[in-house]
Each structure stands twice: as structure tokens, then as C-alpha cells.
């Protein structure tokens, strides 16, 4: 018996929301289609982190002047007025060393942040034939918590130069379908991934602008107390 495929249609997760999705399961060969005891769906957050730095006493190869100073024709498309006497350098040894484990110490760790799982096909599988695609809807309820947004690929390296300590991280919200056959055998199938859109809370409403009203009147004066030259009459 072989669990052939399981497909997922899922929306991106977002804060304080309900994402409506569905799972489609099909089993081949066809004679095994009625031997499914249950199908569960798991959503998990996988985290990966890596730190990379040069080994003690190791120096990266120097970038040297190329023996052949003739610029390849392919460079013509990218030649925006370069000088004829420009020096062409050879990066081959330097580039190879960037991925050479004899130069670097690499420490990597992968862990599972959290897991939630539910049975989509259970007691209701009696009499169902999974040799034909079976579809079951489900929803994912996200609490009002800004989980970190997921990325399918790594966010790249960060550091202060290729000759120093570098690090990279990756996050992934992954779905897995767990198919249990009537003989107790289980198969786990990766069925997709989703992203998480954080919600940026709007700033609190600003207080109303300060308003005030005043009345200006000219002061009473006498001929014995004339206004100073710099005073301005207000109307």
C-alpha cells in the first residue's frame, strides 16, 4: 500500500483571524483505498539557525591579478564605460574558499518551535474509498499574537564582512498529513507551507488639538502714560 499524494489549499495565517482551507487525500493502488483508518493534519513552526566563522589562524586566499587581462566578450553587455587600462582580477580561489569547510567552523541547529495537530478523517472514514480524492475542509484559528513571519528561503547572511562571524536564520510554517492505515502503519507527507502576516497595530488616536479663545483689548491709557514706541495696537 502506498499513500500517493495529499494536497493542501491553505491561506496565509494572520493575527486574530480564521483561515479556511481544505486537504485532499488520494491513495494508490486503488485496492488500498478502503484501508485508511485516519488522516491527521499537523501544522508546525520549524526554526533554523547557523553561525559560520573562520577557523583560528586560517586566512582566505588573496584576490590576485588575472593572468589574462583580456575582458571576455560577455562582459560587453555590462561594460558601462570602463577604462581600457582597468585591471581584471581572479576570484576563483577566493570564491571556492567561502564554501570550503577546511576554512570555516559551522554551527547549525534546527528545532521545532511548536506543533498543533488534529484528526480530519477519523471515525468518518468507514466505507470511504480513498482511491478517489477525498476532500475535507478545516480552519486555522490564530490568536491575537504576532508570530514571526515565515520565509520559505533563508533570509541570507548577516555580519560585518566575509572574514568575520556570519549568521543566518530561517522560519517555516509547514503542514504535514499523517495517514494511518488499518494495519497500523503510518505515513507522513509534507503537503505545503504557509506564511504568517503580522498585524501592525494602529497608533493610538491622538488627542484633539488644543484650542483656546481669547479677546484682546487695548489698555486704557492717559496722556500722561503714552504707549511705548514698540507696542502694537491689537484689533
TrEMBL record:
<keyword id="KW-0732">Signal</keyword>
<protein>
    <submittedName>
        <fullName>Uncharacterized protein</fullName>
    </submittedName>
</protein>
<feature type="compositionally biased region" description="Pro residues">
    <location>
        <begin position="200"/>
        <end position="210"/>
    </location>
</feature>
<feature type="signal peptide">
    <location>
        <begin position="1"/>
        <end position="20"/>
    </location>
</feature>
<feature type="region of interest" description="Disordered">
    <location>
        <begin position="200"/>
        <end position="235"/>
    </location>
</feature>
<feature type="compositionally biased region" description="Basic and acidic residues">
    <location>
        <begin position="214"/>
        <end position="235"/>
    </location>
</feature>
